[in-house]
Write a structure and sequence with these properties.
The chain is built from nine helices and five strands; from the N terminus they run βαβααααββαααβα. The protein has a five-stranded parallel sheet with strand order 2-3-1-4-5, sandwiched between helices.
């Protein structure tokens, strides 16, 4: 049996790190952020929808999407962010479903769906477990600072994602706090993964 694990949590809390460790343990990882980037590549129908909605301000000189310009708009305006998500969600969901099917057919022991909007996008319902990845506020800001994200941009993104914990906590199977050392956190993730596999095998 293949266990499906959804991973979510705010920016800077370590979702990708946790997913990377699970990949090392043999899981197939589907990164919704990478899928979201793929569906707005030149020639994709979703790109035309985004450009039509947000206008020339988000169009690069070569006709592709100016992601930085789009980010400045949506992270400063919750309504614009919701509009963008609504435009992209069908295409993203279709590709994720295809990836889940392919990994299941290939016999992957686990499939990890890493998505910041796991709950809001309806992806949590596709998963056997939901892992909420969190960390202390000071740790989160330090990590964003290390990425070179400006204070104002970091504050906007943290605020825009503020409801993530509230939405995910009630349905979270496990909460992974990454505030500790890398080795300690990795040990927690390994134990959680083994427990998830054991539960699936015991069904």
């Amino acid at each position: 049996m293949t266990v499906r694990i959804g991973i979510t949590g705010p920016i800077g809390c370590g979702k990708s790190t946790v997913a990377g460790w699970l990949a090392e343990l043999g899981a197939t990882v589907v990164d919704a952020d990478q899928v979201a980037r793929a569906v707005v590549e030149p020639g994709e129908p979703a790109l035309a929808d985004v450009l039509e909605r947000f206008g020339p301000a988000v169009r690069a000189d070569d006709g592709s999407l100016d992601r930085a310009a789009l980010g400045r708009i949506v992270f400063a305006d919750p309504e614009a962010l919701a509009t963008l998500e609504a435009l992209l969600r069908p295409a993203i969901r279709e590709r994720i479903l295809a990836a889940l099917d392919a990994a299941t057919v290939a016999g992957a022991p686990a499939i990890v769906v890493e998505a910041i909007r796991l709950v809001e996008g309806g992806l949590a319902a596709l998963c056997d477990e939901v892992w909420l990845v969190t960390c202390e506020a000071a740790t989160q800001r330090a990590r964003l600072d290390s990425r070179g994200l400006a204070d104002a941009d970091a504050a906007e993104r943290i605020a825009a994602q503020g409801r993530l914990i509230e939405a995910a906590r009630p349905i979270a199977t496990r909460v992974i706090d990454t505030s500790s050392t890398r080795d300690a956190t990795r040990a927690v993730v390994i134990a959680a993964y083994r427990a998830a596999l054991d539960l699936e095998r015991g069904k």
